[in-house]
Amino acid sequence: MQPLHPDDTPSLVYANEKGEVKNFPELYMAGRSGNFFFKPLPEDLIPLPEGSELFLLPDRMPIGISPIDDAPAMLDHDPDAPRDTIQAVAAFMAPAHTAIHSAAYEPAKGDIPPLPLFAYTAVGWLKGRFWVSAFRSDPDNRQDAQSFDLEKIKKKTVRKLKENSKNRLIQHLGKCCLTYGCPAARNYFLGRWEAPLPTSPVCNARCVGCISLQPSGCCPATQDRINFVPRVSEIAAIAVPHLKQAPGAIVSFGQGCEGEPLMQAPTLEKAIRSIRAQTDRGTINLNSNASMPDKIKLLVEAGLDSLRVSLNSARDAYHSRYYRPVNFTFRDVLETIDVMKNAHKFVSLNYFILPGFSDDPDEFAALCRLIGEHRPDLIQLRNLNMDPDWYLETVEYAPSAPPMGIRNWHAELQRLFPMLRFGYFNPSLR
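The structure corresponding to this sequence follows.
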């Protein structure tokens, strides 16, 4: 899509006391990057992607940009009802889109609970539609809203659940599909692309932003974690037919509804061997915190094709404060990447994007060192699903310079590492 005209800037949006989303033309929309507020440039903006949602941000006042001097300005009341309270608004974008700016707001009071575990992208209003400060980071349409026929999904899922009433893993994925609307589970029941293989109810990290397990009293997890370890036969009953028949076939251990799959490495090793004894088609992938290089060696020998390493930061201190690892270190993560690369296997970094942190100049330098020394093949640009303030406080973020800007960050990485791929999804390798 062509960028907006240089004179076109969306206006600020807010939610009134009834939860109705309205726009305020007297202020431009603002975007947040770390602790800075900006007016997004026309090339930063795209129409709100289909399948995205708007979220209201309680106890947070919207920040806009003054058209007089381009300075940040808070809207602290409803212009149509001055005595009523208002809330900031953010976009939770559809998959395959990456934020350039987070939503701009200020707390309405001192001590407020953290936002739920979603990503919060800056959104504004112009020419009869919502616009977000973001870009499409992967052309693959495997999780696009128009790719899903809900009636067909329900029909196929119910049928497969009835046909596999004793397979606990298929039953678990049925809940992921029908209750949580998991795109990967939906695609499994539709018989295409990437199918999930959750296996581990336990983890060796205590990620602050874990989406499947949170302590009581904290922000709630967005989905239930699997509560059993599937049998090898249950895993193979999903993986083998999918790899044999699905277009662009991938099966992936390590999902949002589980802990760390490497905690079940013996089961994974047996499952991979069983799968590969029945088919050599498609890609077997592992999404992991990459904490156990010795276990990765076993899985590589069994037939693992690719590894996606979840990474919030290329710096040890920030990594440790977010993951809160148990019996592993950042050095183990790097060694795990090396094991895969030395075996000529594919490695992706599932690099959590938070504007203002990911594009911090020191973070950029650390990521460049990691890429140069450990040679990942792909960076998956995944928005961090966490309250930005809570995250920055958790990792004790201490910037030494203003952020580069996500677009500049992306362009500079492409220039420095021309062979490095960028995207959003795990690729099919064969």
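The longest strand covers residues 21-29.
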